[in-house]
Amino acid sequence: MNFCIRSYKKELLDGETIPFEDIKRNMQELDFINTWLGGHNITVKGFQELLQKKKEITICEIGCGGGDNLAALVKWCNKKNIYAHCIGIDIKKECIEFAQQKNNLLKNAEWICNDYAVVQFEKKPTIIFSSLFCHHFKDEQLIAQLQWMKENAALGFFINDLERHWLAYRLIKTLTKIFSSSYLVKNDAPLSVARGFTKKEWKNIFSKAGIEHYTIQWQWVFRYLIIFRNG
Question: What pLDDT score does 231 carry?
Fold first, then answer.
């Protein structure tokens, strides 16, 4: 594996013929990984840095999967007496159906089964974010994605995604081999790392998107938290 360049090999989850039960198991294990390896904590941190002192907010996640990231944010907002209206966007109807059924914290959420790029809002969400979503795209597609997030977020957006690093690859490959019962997770989790980014690559993508005044913070374990504030 050459970690000097991004892999563009497709993940199994990006296929269109995966049985729903396999997708469901994949999402359950990803929630477990995000919980115990701190992925949800990074999402909450990005949200906090954009929130300011607002007590009512609309949060939109693109590539929402099973809604676990949104649920983690709502749980945090409930503790802080903040009203959060959630919008989850995912192109896979199985993910949307799973998210609708799974979590009482999201019973009032709005779900959109579509390509995020064609979604138009009557009122812009306060904050838009993605988690473990960007590495599914080529660099050219990400340029348009960043511009869409900037244009459609009233306050700003943040990204929680993977750093491409040989140690991260070996760690997740070992952990999933031992603990995972999902062939999707065993295949896609290490591949996701190989499809991840370096800080230099993120800077280049933002430059091509014409977006300035953002921050890139390295997070344990081998993640980047990127935050952009409008205005």
Answer: 73
